[in-house]
Amino acid sequence: MAKQTSTKQVRYAMPSNDEMELVQLAWRVGEQLDDNLVMTWGGGSSLAASLGRLVEQRVFSMEFGRHEPAMMRQEYARWEDAEFITIVGRSFPVAATRAVLSPSLLAPTKVEADLGISDGRLRIAAGGTSDGPIREHATTVAHPSVRNTPAIGWLLGELCHRTADLPSLSLLNVRLLKLLCRLGVKVSPVPGYSPVEYLGVLSQLSVFEAGRQPDIVTRGL
């Protein structure tokens, strides 16, 4: 019997044959979106997480300079217990998002940790309480081959609907924030916070409202 590739390990790179095994599994168990894409989701030890981390590492390296797997493991070590949604092409994963639940300030969101804000004011600005639960859309990445396709709409639509129970913080590329607003997504800048340079990209601290997002998101961009 052939060895089955594990999804339990946190890996941001793997041999191509292991990756293809997981891609083929995604095509067997995922939700088919069209002839060339399937979507899968799950927690930090899931198939979606294993494939999602691969596309995170690749896109970060393309967009922000070399992000070696060891660097990614260190950067996200505290936020591996997350909900991943990953879109998979015929040969490799092409888009992913990572949503983190922070039950209290004892387990801060990544953006709170990155910005050094530990007093709960981001949670209040996002519509929560100073030490209450909140979600964070910690990463949303897409390979260049799918950025002008409906894949991004499917990804964001699924993300919004699966995390609608709480407000969700996100440090968004300003261009992406403007696009989401044009689409009618209920997302807005966090009051009192101006855009900042993050990894060389102008980004805006934003909050996705709790509750159902408009169906236009799921129809693609």
Record keyword descriptors for this entry.
221 residues, alpha+beta, 9-stranded mixed β-sheet, globular, disordered C terminus
Descriptive report:
The protein is of the alpha+beta class and 221 residues long. The protein contains seven helices and nine strands. The chain has helices at 16-29, 47-64, 69-76, 110-115, 121-125, 151-162, 174-182, and strands spanning 31-32, 38-42, 83-88, 93-102, 134-142, 168-173, 187-189, 196-198, 201-208. Strands 1, 2, 3, 4, 5, 6, 7, 8 and 9 form a nine-stranded mixed β-sheet that branches. Strand 5 (134-142), helix 6 (151-162) and strand 6 (168-173) form a beta-alpha-beta unit. It is globular, with a radius of gyration of 17 Å. Residues 216-221 have low confidence and may be disordered.
- Largest sheet data: 9 strands, mixed
The DSSP helix count reads: 7
Average pLDDT number: 86
Termini separation? 43 Å
Secondary-structure blueprint of this entry?
Blueprint: H1 16-29, E1 31-32, E2 38-42, H2 47-64, H3 69-76, E3 83-88, E4 93-102, H4 110-115, H5 121-125, E5 134-142, H6 151-162, E6 168-173, H7 174-182, E7 187-189, E8 196-198, E9 201-208
Parallel strand pairs: 5-6
Antiparallel strand pairs: 1-2, 2-3, 3-4, 4-5, 6-9, 7-9, 8-9
